[in-house]
Amino acid sequence: MFDILPPSSGLHEVQAADTKLAAKTGRTVTILVKGESFGLAKEVAEKFYFSYADLRGQIESDYFDSLSLFVDSSSITEITGWLHENRFVLLDDETRELLKNGGADEIAGEALASVYGAFSFSDLSYLGEDPFLLSERNLRHFLEGGAISATNMALRDDVLSAEKDGEFYVLIRGTISEQGSSLTGKKSAVKNIYETAELLQRNYGYDGRTVEFIFSGVPFHSYENASSAQKQISVISTVALILIFVLFLLIFRSIVPAFVSALAVAFSCVVGFVSVLLFFRGIHILTFVFGTTLIGTCLDYSIHFFVNWTGNLSCESGEAVRKHIFRGVTLGFASTEICFAALFFAPFPLLKQVSVFLFTGLATAWLSVVALYPMLKMPEIRRSVLMTARIHSFDVKFGSKSVVCAVPALLVIFSLLVIVANRRDFKILNNIQELYSMSPKMLRNEITSAKILNTGASGWYFILKADSEEELLQKNEELGAFLDEQIESQKLQNYLSVCQFVPSQKKQEESYAAAENLVPLAEEQFAALGFDDFQNYEENYRAKKERFVHPADSNLPLVIKDAISNLWIGELDGEFYSCVMPLHAKPEEEQFFREYAANHDSVFFVNKVKDISSQLDVLSKSMLKMLALAFVAVVAILCFFYKIRLVLKIAGVPLLVTLVTTAVLILAKIHISFFPITALVLVFGLGLDYIIYAVEGSGQKSSLNNFAILLSFVTTALSFGALALSNFPPVHTLGLTVFVGLFTAVMTAFCVSKT
What we know:
- The protein is α+β, with helices and mostly antiparallel strands.
- The protein is built from 27 helices and 11 strands.
- Strands 1, 2, 3, 4, 5 and 6 form a 6-stranded antiparallel sheet that branches.
- Helix 3 (about 75-85) packs across helix 6, helix 12 (about 320-345) runs antiparallel to helix 23 and helix 26 runs antiparallel to helix 27.
- The longest helix has about 35 residues, at about 220-250.
- The protein is elongated and about 115 Å long.
- The model is unreliable at about 385-390 (pLDDT under 50).
């Protein structure tokens, strides 16, 4: 969903970094294996893990970049060895301050107590080189701080697990590969994960045993929602096109109109698709959803041609048919193109794509009708039951002035009553959370995962920017110090920052300098421990000078790499970026943290849900302004062709459409937001077509023209309005708005044609 939304106005400076961060976090998955016993949960988790990894831990790259289950002795050994190697520069704050303030003797005493204590659990592997147990102090800092796991999971039998309500959970974490992130391809990781989980549930869920997989992460939501939306749109569109094809056969009693119209629609869509690729080098899936407007619009032109081609006996050739419909079709084409062109000026890549797709596709459809259709041979039989008697019957029974004009009047009264009754809700309000609704199963998964893991992700974070790696690490430490103060004041419980794992070089230099205070105590410490080779200690210390740790080091332990993978964004265009994530932050304190970022250079506060919703409010208002300008331009053009009284009638149609659509959206509990407003732009273009056709066709052959307008509405309602049946919120809103708007427009068009 974030792919189609504009960036927050305050994030333009760090948009590339935020996009890279989203690409990382957007492929991260969490899987909890639930069992009635720890042994069962662990066994199933191992079976799942080894479905994608070999015994050496090599991961199948088709599906995952990384996958972790075990936190075994080798992992502890790796991180302990790394901490030992860098023990002089990775001192925790408490140890460093003790050494700087004359507490070297205290550290030496604590080390001896750990070695000789009755209940010592210290790792003494490096005691001969590290008599002060600096690496152990650093390890304890990592583990006790909770920065590595940041969850409620505890280490048990080499895996992270938890127990709740008599059920046991084992944690698996992974990052899906770019190839595996495909939603529909053969290498779709999510699809394969579901298949593997289902197989394991069948194999282990017998004799009353319960095994369940709990999935959490963006890829699972993307897969489920995209699969559902694609299936719905495909079914709805396929059924609609079949119905339209059958309708054409029934009305025209010939396969030519249906076949030629289908070719014209297909050709227009291809041209629109190619145009978008030429302009943008790519196309978003929702551009196709908006692009279904072309089906209805292209069919409008075809219908007006073929209705007269079949039933207008005064037209004896294709050229005569073109001449008869040319002004109406061309004025309708011009008004619609102006509305579509207005979309291009929105500061929103998706709308620019939609604009190019519709603008070029519609131009292709118009050219097809006026340039190619006249070449068709006129039908031998120009009369049919539906094209004569039934059209006339329709016009007499339902096309009378009293009947047709009553409908718009009732719609006005209805709309005003609804809007007045709900006037407090009458405002532009975007909430991107309303654009996605979880299935009950996914909602249960996320609730369970949140309870078990208790990571406390707040939904917002900081992005930090600097000119160098060192400056960026120092900014992380500055922000970390601020957040530590807020933890004490209970504004949050914890946070994740790269500086918790890799301090700045400045701080590493301070640690190294502080560690020198232990050198004079080395001889006495070694003697107390029963060693006599104390001189090597100073040599080792001196050898570590100028050997600092960096976030991009290839020799970082895997646990550390995983921990900072979503925190260290790295270098982009010569500048460096990182992310800091507050945990268990109080929602009411958001403004406090936002103000901190606003008052500090190169610190950006990000709450995508709120920021983008606000940005969409601004964009929605600008869309309304562009729509108003397009409306004025269309009215100005019509003044050259019609009398001012008639132009005012035509101008009233879009206003009525807006009024009725607003009332229906209020009743449907849908906010006046970006997608309904965008749909109104499409309705303006299509609705003006109806009124122009009605005006151009009034008088002689008006019954034939009215039937063509009605048929145009039916086909558009089937091809585009039917999307209102989808439960994918943006598509549903789009389809509903278009259907209601076009229904209002067509009824008003009939009214104007009678007056």
